[in-house]
Design brief:
Helix 3 packs across helix 4. The chain starts with 12 loop residues before the first helix and ends with a helix. The chain contains five helices and three strands. Helix content is about 60%, strand content about 15%. It has a three-stranded antiparallel beta sheet with strand order 1-3-2. By secondary structure, the chain is an alpha+beta fold. Strand 2 and strand 3 form a beta hairpin. The longest helix has 15 residues.
C-alpha cells in the first residue's frame, strides 16, 4: 500500500454510499448467517429458512436487501429460486473477519 499523501483521492458520494451499505449489510446477524451459509453452496429460500431456523418471510426480506447490493444472486429452477453469493471481495472480507474473531 502506498501511503504517499500526494496520491490521496477523495471518495465520491456514490462510492461512500455503497461502501456504507455493504458494511450495513454485514452488520446484521441474520444477513451474516445467510451469507455464511451461501458461502459454501447455493440454497433455496426454504432451505435457508430451515437450516437457520428463520421464517421464510424473514429470509426473503434479507435476500432482497442483499440482492439489491449485488451480494447474492439467484437462478430459477422451475418455481424455485436458488441463491448463492455474488461478490468474492465481500465474501473474502467476511471470511477474514470470521477468522480474525476466531484467532486466539
Amino acid at each position: 500500500m502506498n501511503n504517499d499523501p500526494s496520491n490521496y483521492v477523495e471518495l465520491d458520494e456514490e462510492t461512500l454510499f455503497l461502501v456504507t451499505q455493504t458494511f450495513k449489510a454485514l452488520s446484521d446477524p441474520t444477513r451474516l448467517r445467510i451469507l455464511h451459509l451461501l458461502f459454501h453452496e447455493e440454497h433455496s429460500v426454504n432451505e435457508i429458512a430451515e437450516k437457520l431456523s428463520l421464517l421464510q418471510s424473514t429470509v426473503s426480506h434479507q435476500l432482497r436487501f442483499l440482492k439489491n447490493l449485488r451480494l447474492v444472486k439467484f437462478r430459477r429452477e422451475g418455481t424455485t429460486l436458488y441463491y448463492s453469493h455474488d461478490d468474492e471481495h465481500v465474501m473474502s472480507l467476511l471470511k477474514q473477519a470470521i477468522e480474525h474473531t476466531q484467532h486466539s
